[in-house]
Specification:
Rossmann fold
């Protein structure tokens, strides 16, 4: 048996569910072997051929986040790997356990056009570099790569030198191949009894407690709601945790830069903030201002998360769900089962109702009607609010980066946390289209909505071909102001020369039609009537909306930009 065949079989038997990639000569045989093999469930891994390696990495990242299953990225050596790096970097920032298999030049062939020091490049991105060392270790090397990805919650890149791939597998490794199973993660641990008792007492004493949940607490939703009810706490989430508490009447949606002013004020005025599985980065905390003048307790199962961005009052090591259950049980005993009022007053409930959704906030519509000298532009808030009403709620939303991004990020409602796929960890633009396609493979019964700027769209539209081939019910909303507007609004007070970040008008709808998409150009609200035809079915191809928008500074960037960013 060739090593390439053994590698493919090993990955399948360790639970690979979906493979995304661009196949070249360096990864062809291993990829084919992977797709021909069966996993523990007796099924072959699915395969999606993408048009660019970065798209493959973003799709795999989103798929893995939505399903919890092992997703695989497959790329050629050298340039194939380098093309995937931004998507791998996003997965690193998101702590997504991915396996990337990459061809590699044979040892010593430094004159090859494909040669780069792959291990150094990979480690520089924050991923883990693994490789096939010899035919006598190839199965062991592959098992180790997948195990490290799962255990460390980070992408691992397995480099596969061509000479080793083409070698015959040793007999002992062939025997090992018959006894492979998916890696077993260690059992999660609850926080110490003293820590649980301490948090319980502080929740019982606080007048205005708030519980913040990140994506790391996705399995803790019910016990956290119960803790909040007993202690009188309000509920909020990080951006990536958006949707976790949608069913609770005391939730305030996302905390931080995406929050409405009313919701931010309620967090600001809290006297206790208990954080479960959230990073507390500058976006969640509005540059740390939302952590001031209160006790902040950070609970996480990863000690390296503590104080990573800002100092906190108390750190507690423990699994979010187990610790939430323990605190709930302790609170029930402490309070005799009688919930406190805490922050849950009638006045606060009215404030939450008034400030929950951005789509309900009063604003002056800045749409520009058509005139003799121009064709008109639509306010991005008006655009998104109308689309939010038109499109089915069974959806998954992926906002891209840019000045516009708060509109799709917050004016589109989401049904739950699975319905929100955020690819802003690396703060790159151009990732959302591929991200939402990956989420659509994980959640095929939902429509996919990508909110992108014209800049990000022009970087990534090749993956429309992938969406068309797979008949994905996808809506791409392009917030088109013919500029990199984050830079426009960041530097407009510094210089009048913005030619480097402003572009001529582009007919994005025509580009989309070339891929086989339905497409419309929107300049005013009435142009959106055509969306209803797509919604009514059969939704067998993507719809691209080229929205010519009015441009003004995003409220998120306005309070988050610093001189250094």
């Amino acid at each position: 048996m060739k090593v390439s065949q053994a590698v493919g079989q090993t990955i399948a038997r360790m639970g690979a569910a979906h493979v995304f990639g661009v196949v070249g000569s360096g990864n062809f045989r291993a990829t084919n072997a992977l797709l021909e093999a069966t996993g523990p469930d007796g099924q072959h891994p699915q395969f999606t051929a993408t048009r660019h390696e970065m798209g493959a990495a973003c799709m795999a990242d989103a798929y893995a986040r939505a399903t919890g299953k092992l997703a695989v990225v497959t790329v050629h050596q050298g340039c194939g790997l380098s093309n995937a790096l931004t998507g791998i970097g996003e997965a690193v920032k998101a702590h997504t356990p991915l396996l990337v298999i990459s061809g590699d030049t044979p040892g010593g062939e430094y004159g090859s056009n494909f040669w780069i020091d792959q291990d150094t490049v990979i480690e520089g991105m924050g991923a883990i570099a693994e490789r096939l060392h010899s035919p006598t270790r190839a199965v062991t090397d592959t098992i180790r790569a997948i195990t490290r990805a799962k255990m460390n919650r980070v992408p691992v890149v397995l480099s596969m030198p061509l000479d080793i791939q083409e070698s015959e597998l040793s007999k002992d490794q062939e025997e090992l191949l018959t006894n492979i199973a998916p890696p077993q993660l260690p059992a999660p641990a609850v926080a110490s009894p003293d820590a649980v008792a301490s948090v319980t007492q502080m929740l019982a004493d606080a007048q205005r407690p708030v519980i913040l949940a990140g994506r790391g607490s996705a399995q803790a939703v019910e016990p956290l709601r119960q803790v909040a009810e007993l202690s009188g706490a309000l509920l909020t989430t990080s951006a990536v945790g958006r949707g976790l508490f949608n069913e609770d009447p005391w939730h305030m949606d996302a905390m931080g830069g995406f929050a409405t002013d009313g919701a931010a004020e309620l967090v600001h005025d809290a006297d206790l903030l208990v954080v479960f599985g959230a990073a507390l980065n500058r976006w969640t905390t509005r540059d740390g201002t939302l952590l001031q003048n209160k006790t902040v307790i950070q609970i996480d199962d990863d000690a390296t998360a503590f104080g990573k961005h800002y100092p906190v009052s108390i750190t507690i090591l423990g699994d979010a769900a187990l610790t939430a259950h323990a605190i709930r049980d302790e609170l029930e005993q402490c309070l005799g089962g009688t919930p406190r009022t805490g922050y849950r007053t009638t006045e606060v409930k009215e404030r939450i109702a008034a400030s929950l959704h951005w789509r309900d906030q009063v604003y002056e519509d800045n749409s520009e009607p058509a005139g003799e000298s121009h064709h008109g532009k639509i306010d991005p808030r008006t655009l998104t609010n109308i689309l939010d009403e038109m499109l089915p709620m069974e959806r998954v939303v992926a906002p891209d980066g840019g000045n516009f991004n708060a509109y799709p990020a917050m004016h589109f409602r989401v049904p739950d946390n699975l319905g929100y796929s955020l690819s802003l960890g690396f703060q790159s633009i151009g990732l959302a289209l591929s991200t939402v396609i990956g989420a659509a493979f994980a959640l095929p019964d939902r429509i996919a909505i990508a909110g992108v700027g014209d800049g990000g769209f022009m970087m990534s539209h090749v993956e429309l071909d992938t969406a068309v081939r797979h008949k994905i019910p996808l809506v791409v909303v392009v917030y088109n102001d013919d500029a990199y507007s984050a830079e426009v609004h960041h530097f407009i007070h510094e210089t009048s020369n913005l030619d480097t970040v402003v572009f001529p008008e582009t007919d994005i709808a025509a580009v989309a039609r070339g891929y086989g998409c339905e497409a419309i150009t929107v300049r005013q609200a009435s142009d959106l009537d055509a969306v209803r035809n797509w919604v009514d079915g059969p939704r067998d191809r993507p719809l691209v909306i080229d929205a010519k928008i009015t441009s003004f500074p995003s409220w998120v960037l306005a309070h988050s930009f610093t001189e250094n960013e």
